[in-house]
Amino acid sequence: MKIAIPDDYQDAVRTLECFQKLNGHAVTSYNDHVSDPETLAVLLQDAEALVLIRERTPITESLLARLPRLKLIVQTGRQAPHLDLAACTRHGVAVIYATPTTAGKPYATAELTWGLILAAMRFIPQEVESMKAGHWQHTLGRTLHGRTLGIFGYGNIGSLVATYAKAFGMQVLVWGREGSRSRARADGFTVATDRDTLFREADVLSLHLVLKDETRGIVTATDLQKMKASAVLVNTSRAALIVPGALEEALRSGHPGYAAVDVYEKEPVTEHPLLQMDSVICTPHLGYVEKDSYELLLGAAFDQLLAFADGKTAAVANPETCKQA
Predict the structure, then answer these.
(1) Which of the residues 56, 147, 238, 255 is marked catalytic?
(2) I need a labelling partner for 322 at 20 to 30 A (CA). Which of 62, 193, 272, 274 fits?
(3) pTM of the prediction?
(4) Strands 280-282 and 258-261
(5) What is the topology classification, in CATH, of domain 107-282?
């Protein structure tokens, strides 16, 4: 089978142990992001299967019309808007959302969140650059002990981040839908009396919401203006949870005073207003990007691909395509 893997930015897939599962198949991975539909169609024209690591390559009606050999798309993780499932069905392309059966909790993103919190509160990147430039003790950071960590969205990642806060002696304040609030109470964490309280009282506010129609733009400029001038907003979830431009505007006004961001409206990013702000730490969407997560996610994706090649279609999200075949 001819398999294409777009958006393998680090050229990492072929270095994984799970890649050996594809021995005997013709695999091509692309290390840059291609957004032009015409170029993408040419690159993928011979592919019989796509393995999508990220949510960056739009799978549209027009693209599928240019890929007559394509029979299968395996997406790591859950369904996302970049992949038009109905269009895939119309073109007879089976879709599988590959999630590991033993995924456990998303430790990688929770750990990165804490790395960003520590870096922002102690100005670690700024101090590293200052020292490289020959300076000594350039900024004055703050401790976490005794301060309030706000968690907006208490799901798999939010609950881990809250748990880690105990080690730092932080007070945890949670807000979200009723399910989030109930789980937080059951775990012994304080639930904010209302949404405004979360934004006003948090010294560090971390977003952990799933992006969907009802959460898109859920954090507004008004919300951010309620934050302390000394507060840090951390986003390792999705950029679109915040109204476009609202974070930049809020930072310029000084409420919140700081931010640490791992996600952006369009990725990969080479230019962005946040990159020009001294009060912001930016990382290139590293949340789940580490070897253990890759082995788990791509191992599951490759297993599903091979099962499909052997005629096993139970995991296909649009089984009508199997009948078409």
Answers:
(1) 238
(2) 62
(3) 0.88
(4) parallel
(5) Rossmann fold (3.40.50)
